[in-house]
Design goal:
One of its GO terms (cellular component) is nuclear pore. This protein has 142 residues and is mainly beta. Helix content is 10%, strand content 40%. It starts with 12 loop residues before the first strand and ends in a 21-residue tail after the last helix.
Length: 142
Amino acid sequence: MPEGPVQTGEENEKAVFTADSALYEYLDGGWKERGKGELKLNIPESGSERSRLVMRAKGNYRLILNASLYKDMSLKDMDKKGVTFACMNSIGDSQSALVTFALKFRDTGIRDEFKAAVEMHKAGKASDMLKTPENSPEASHD
């Protein structure tokens, strides 16, 4: 096979938040680990599509989370470094219903940055200003 650029589907998106985390899915009364890797909150450069969460497993870059943000998406703290949320994960043969996921971060600061980024970019809350670490919610109090 000839080598060339790899198409990921993220070419027309900008990552406004990235962090290493572990992804868990709530199944049959318990949490099942889905993988560890880099989580990204991508926003479309065109502004015509929804922002989405994308996570790929470390090592083989297998897609383990691909979920659009939605207006009523609720993030709940879990333990000290985790957050839970419900979404439709658009990968593989998964069902097309809301599923509860948990993300565990290295520390509470990263978790809080993630929650702020998701709140900023949920459907219906997008603005012309892109949130980056340089202009995070802590930097501006309207």
